[in-house]
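Take a look at the protein record below with the fold in mind.
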Amino acid sequence: MLILQRMATSSSFLSTPLLKSSSSFPTHFLSPLKHCVSAPSTEFRALALYRNRNGVSTSSAAVATEAQVSTQDDKLKETQKEKSDKLEKVVLPTNESSESLLRIRHTCAHVMAMAVQKLFPDAKVTIGPWIENGFYYDFDMEPLTDKELKRIKKEMDRIIGRNLPLIREEVSRDEAQRRITALNEPYKLEILDSIKEDPITIYHIGNEWWDLCAGPHVEYTGKINRKAVELESIAGAYWRGDEKKPMLQRIYGTAWESEDQLKAYLHFKEEAKRRDHRRLGQVLDLFSIQNDAGGGLVFWHPKGAIVRHVIEDLWKKIHIERGYDLLYTPHVAKADLWQISGHLDFYKENMYDQMNIEDELYQLRPMNCPYHILIYKRRPHSYHDFPIRVAELGTVYRYELSGSLHGLFRVRGFTQDDAHIFCLGDQIKDEIRGVLDLTEELLLQFGFSKYEVNLSTRPEKSVGDDDIWVKATSALRDALDDKGWSYQIDDGGGAFYGPKIDLKIEDALGRKWQCSTIQASPQLVTGPILMCAFFF
């Protein structure tokens, strides 16, 4: 007998850390943007009417008529629309589609580090990679201000304008250590220790500055278009992501191949800013995060609670219609339960500390799976009972560093719609297909019709025998093929207890967000297979 468990998680309107701030910018702008350009101000018309009505001036020479102002407004609207349409047509390349862009961004990180050390000689350098829309570099130095960012950009422009060569050099490990020690760069010594390959590669900018680096870079700094580079922000970042290590100053920048690309990117950022759910949450009085209660904990206001109520009612209605029984389970459980489930071995860093209650250890739940399994195991089941489908809007708690918290996208407490299906072996394919259909139905309710689908396979850290992993992975693949969805293989991207199907949805701006997950989890129940599906 096989048991299929399906687990589903909450709609994107509910707070969830699974919507990672790993979102990508689109390679082109979509038509919805055409309807999102702000209307021009009507100050001219209002001023003319005010003057006419209040006798400020009635001469045709002093005050434009309303018709003339209307014509000016129309021309302004037309100009604004033309500008917006032009920006929307600009194709934004990616690091994957353009090696020259990747080289530009990587070199920009080095140029910025050189500029910082010219302006702030005591600053210590760490790492500076290219990233999705630009680059960053981390420095051990005094906190920076936006005013100082402008100074750094000016110095970068000077370095770029000098058209200095980027020179690759190979040195021995001992020579690299000698040079780094001479510069008194302790972080670079630590990086050198982590490099396993020999010889050590160094990139010079002219003969004035160098860094440990494997490349690639542009040939000369002059290959960078100064007008296509902008420093964006400053943030704090722990060295190596460890909160016990020094807090560094991280400078983010964006770089493109042309000025038009930069303008299109900035236009896109403005559109994204207008849609920022944190701003909308305040403007519409939907939710807040109260510092007195703690970061990452969401308070739903009356208006937001009504919206959430409507969404939850829809979710319950659809699940009941599809044969699911609803559950409610506790927010805490004995720590032993999480040891048995494997969470303490594989997920402990995301769990809160245990609580001692009457000499027994309890734990806030990070997931709902073990609870649903306990309900399933409360009594024997006949073959005629299967499939058994259960679902819950369960609130879970996960530890997140304060620096990683982000509105509703990365929180410490959230409600996810979990559903689990227990089924026999010959039912598994049809049940997974049913979950895919249900996923599509729910996402379409919120206007999401474009997905990126990945089949994530067994990770290095996992539990269970190879044969059951193969069987579970094959079931997911067969269901995807039967559904007719195209998908990619994400090798090693599965959960520690089973393979999964991940869906990334595309929003109105073309950004992609990790959303629904359907997991085949054979290890959580003895013998049968367990499948988990997460919906947002």
